Amino acid sequence: KAGVTQTPRYLIKTRGQQVTLSCSPISGHRSVSWYQQTPGQGLQFLFEYFSETQRNKGNFPGRFSGRQFSNSRSEMNVSTLELGDSALYLCASSRTTVLDGYTFGSGTRLTVV
Amino acid sequence: DQQVKQNSPSLSVQEGRISILNCDYTNSMFDYFLWYKKYPAEGPTFLISISSIKDKNEDGRFTVFLNKSAKHLSLHIVPSQPGDSAVYFCAASIGSARQLTFGSGTQLTVLP
């Protein structure tokens, strides 16, 4: 079966610009979460969506936002990019309980210059 | 404040031997724990999980042990194989909240 698909794989943006990343979860998975991975901070939770509603949000500034569509696909947006936003952004989807684990995509590598 | 800690950044093990990866946590509210492995340029892959009502869970070569009083969990891989070489992350969650707090990872190298 198809896994979690994230597009684009790589992105280079200039400081001050905004960016939108896309995530298509596994068919049937209604929960989509986003994580940021950096060398200094590791893997950090951004937010989680279920049935188009944001259920949880991590400790990130309001420049980071997201949404989920009726087909469970999700997008995250980062406005007014800063150099420190350079990171690997990972999307994960899950079907039922926490113990089932989450299936992660390969991520979008964002570089802000 | 790191709520989930993996104090060993790296571990080398001979093929066929046991690999033991450790993880400590500080938040006593955590009640679900998961282990992931990650290869370069790929997202993390779910390995095994355990809830706080259990102290052990097995899946093939992978066993996770949970010591709630010590706020410690460990992942045992037996026997270790070269393909197990990857970064291993432990993660924790509170209740059904789908918000994972990750440790910093341990690079496991299995030597042939």
Keywords:
A: 113 residues; mainly beta; 4-stranded antiparallel β-sheet; B: 112 residues; 6-stranded mixed β-sheet; 5-stranded antiparallel β-sheet; globular
In short:
In chain A, 0% of the residues lie in helices and 53% in strands.
Topology (SSEs and partners):
The complex is a heterodimer of chains A (113) and B (112).
Chain A: E1 5-7, E2 10-13, E3 19-24, E4 31-38, E5 42-50, E6 53-57, E7 64-68, E8 74-78, E9 87-94, E10 103-104, E11 108-112
Parallel strand pairs in A: 2-11
Antiparallel strand pairs in A: 1-3, 3-8, 4-5, 4-9, 5-6, 7-8, 9-10, 9-11
Chain B: E1 4-5, E2 10-14, E3 19-25, E4 32-38, E5 45-51, E6 56-59, E7 62-67, E8 72-77, E9 86-93, E10 101-102, E11 106-111
Parallel strand pairs in B: 2-11
Antiparallel strand pairs in B: 1-3, 3-8, 4-5, 4-9, 6-7, 7-8, 9-10, 9-11
Mean pLDDT over all positions of chain B: 94
Gap from first CA to last CA of chain B: 38 Å
Total number of beta strands of chain A: 11
The biggest beta sheet of chain A reads: 7 strands, mixed
Instruction: State the low-pLDDT regions of chain A, or none.
Output: none
> How far apart lie the N and C ends of chain A?
37 Å
Structural class of chain B: mainly beta
What series of H and E elements makes up the topology of chain B? EEEEEEEEEEE
Shape of chain B: globular
- Mean pLDDT of chain A comes to 93
Structure description:
- The complex is a heterodimer of chains A (113) and B (112).
- Chain A is mainly beta and 113 residues long.
- Chain A has no helices and 11 strands.
- Chain A has strands at 5-7, 10-13, 19-24, 31-38, 42-50, 53-57, 64-68, 74-78, 87-94, 103-104, 108-112.
- In chain A, strands 2, 4, 5, 6, 9, 10 and 11 form a 7-stranded mixed beta sheet that branches. Chain A has a 4-stranded antiparallel beta sheet with strand order 1-3-8-7, with no helix packed on it.
- Chain A is globular.
- Chain A starts with a strand and ends with a strand.
- With 112 residues, chain B is mainly beta.
- Chain B has no helices and 11 strands.
- Chain B has strands spanning 4-5, 10-14, 19-25, 32-38, 45-51, 56-59, 62-67, 72-77, 86-93, 101-102, 106-111.
- In chain B, strands 2, 4, 5, 9, 10 and 11 form a 6-stranded mixed beta sheet that branches. A 5-stranded antiparallel beta sheet of chain B has the order 1-3-8-7-6, with no helix packed on it.
- In chain B, strand 4 and strand 5 (45-51) form a beta hairpin.
- Chain B starts with a strand and ends with a strand.
- The mean pLDDT of chain B is 94.
- Chain A binds chain B through residues 4, 31, 33, 35, 42-45, 48, 50, 55-56, 58, 90, 92, 94, 97-107, and chain B through 32, 34, 36, 41-47, 49-51, 89, 91, 93, 96-105.
